[in-house]
């Protein structure tokens, strides 16, 4: 005699083949959801220097042929260092990072990025990433410039030639200002540097009356001091930011990408105006930063470009700071 349990089990057994057949014949369900976008999340990162809020905003990247980038070493030697550090061996991928600091006098930007470029360009992402970070260009009270290469000053203006930071003063190093505003220097400059003369005039003219020229090692405002770092350009300048005992050095282009250049401070980059002076500058500055354990950020360092330098042999290795979910 079959009880209720037996009847249910036998019914399930009879139904199973039919269910399997139906499942096999049923068409596959195709998701109508769009594929995930090919872009990353917005590129910004926040951290503190003492009580000051700092935001790194990524401005994209560029990729340069490796051959010829280091002018005083054979390509094979450069490739060997890149290979050992899991970097591409044919091209150098160079990021761009703009640093914003909320000071007691208002929001300060260090350099201005590449500016408005074609949507297909990998550069020129600063304004979009500023918006994602909640940074309003009209709230920037000062744009502090390290040097006048195009990837640092072209973002001073919009695609229409207007001020990208309409309420800001622009702070510039005196040595840099004098050099690039003297037309007589153009013919005496390396060929690849000459376009910076016209670009300098174009980008700064809309800030006429809003430009403040500072001497080497001058105080920009309380807590921010210029640090002469000549060589990459004639007046290239780094900036020391401090709040109490907390310190941050914005090294700008004292070194291009840290691998391979900071690891090998004696290697000379084609983008340096005076390579010997640039080498002396970075050795002096990086000795100080590593010995005193001062935090640093660099314009061409891997995003978010915030960490420390440690001595490694004759060079310096960049140690990226741990990512923090809160500021």
Describe this structure as you would to a colleague.
The protein has 327 residues and is α/β, with parallel strands linked by helices. The chain has a single domain (43-320), classed as Ribonuclease Z/Hydroxyacylglutathione hydrolase-like (Metallo-beta-lactamase, Chain A). It has eight helices and 14 strands. A seven-stranded mixed beta sheet has the order 1-2-3-4-5-6-7. It has a seven-stranded mixed beta sheet with strand order 8-9-10-11-12-13-14. The longest helix has 22 residues, at 4-25. It is globular, with a radius of gyration of 27 Å. The relative contact order is 0.14. Mean pLDDT is 91; it is low at 4-24.
Considering the chains and any ligands shown, give keywords for the structure.
single chain, 327 residues, alpha/beta, Metallo-beta-lactamase, Chain A, seven-stranded mixed beta sheet, 25% helix, 28% strand
Short description:
This protein is of the alpha/beta class and 327 residues long. It contains eight helices and 14 strands. The N and C termini lie far apart (73 Å).
Secondary-structure map:
Blueprint: H1 4-25, E1 44-49, E2 52-65, H2 75-84, E3 91-103, E4 106-110, H3 126-133, E5 140-144, H4 150-153, E6 169-173, H5 174-180, H6 195-204, E7 211-214, E8 219-221, E9 224-228, E10 237-243, E11 246-252, H7 258-261, H8 275-292, E12 295-298, E13 306-312, E14 315-320
Parallel strand pairs: 4-5, 5-6, 6-7, 11-12
Antiparallel strand pairs: 1-2, 2-3, 3-4, 8-9, 9-10, 10-11, 12-13, 13-14
């Amino acid at each position: 005699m079959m009880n209720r349990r037996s009847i249910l089990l036998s019914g399930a057994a009879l139904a199973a083949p039919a269910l399997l057949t139906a499942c096999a014949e049923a068409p596959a369900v195709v998701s109508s959801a769009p594929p995930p976008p090919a872009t990353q999340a917005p590129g910004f990162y926040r951290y503190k220097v003492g009580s000051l809020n700092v935001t790194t905003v990524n401005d994209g990247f560029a990729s340069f042929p490796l051959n010829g980038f280091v002018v005083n070493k054979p390509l094979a030697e450069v490739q060997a260092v890149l290979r050992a550090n899991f970097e591409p061996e044919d091209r150098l991928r160079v990021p761009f990072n703009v640093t914003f600091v909320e000071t007691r006098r208002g929001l300060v930007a260090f350099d201005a990025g590449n500016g408005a470029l074609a949507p297909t360009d990998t550069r020129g992402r600063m304004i979009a990433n500023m918006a994602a970070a909640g940074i309003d260009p009209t709230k920037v009270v000062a744009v502090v410039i390290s040097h006048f290469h195009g990837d640092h000053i072209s973002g001073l203006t919009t695609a229409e030639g207007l001020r990208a930071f309409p309420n800001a003063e622009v702070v510039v190093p005196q040595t840099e200002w004098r050099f690039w505003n003297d037309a007589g220097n153009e013919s005496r400059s390396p060929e690849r540097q000459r376009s910076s003369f016209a670009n300098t005039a174009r980008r700064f003219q809309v800030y006429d009356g809003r430009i403040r020229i500072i001497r080497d090692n001058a105080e920009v405002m309380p807590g921010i001091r210029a640090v002469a770092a000549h060589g990459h350009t004639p007046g290239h300048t780094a900036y020391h930011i401090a709040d109490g005992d907390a310190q941050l050095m914005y090294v700008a282009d004292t070194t291009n990408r840290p691998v391979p250049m900071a690891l090998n401070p004696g290697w000379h980059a084609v983008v340096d105006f005076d390579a010997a002076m640039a080498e002396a500058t970075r050795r002096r500055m990086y000795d100080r930063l590593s010995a005193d354990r001062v935090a640093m950020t660099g314009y061409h360092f891997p995003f978010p470009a915030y960490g420390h330098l440690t001595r490694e042999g004759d060079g310096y290795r960049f140690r990226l700071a741990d990512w923090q979910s809160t500021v």
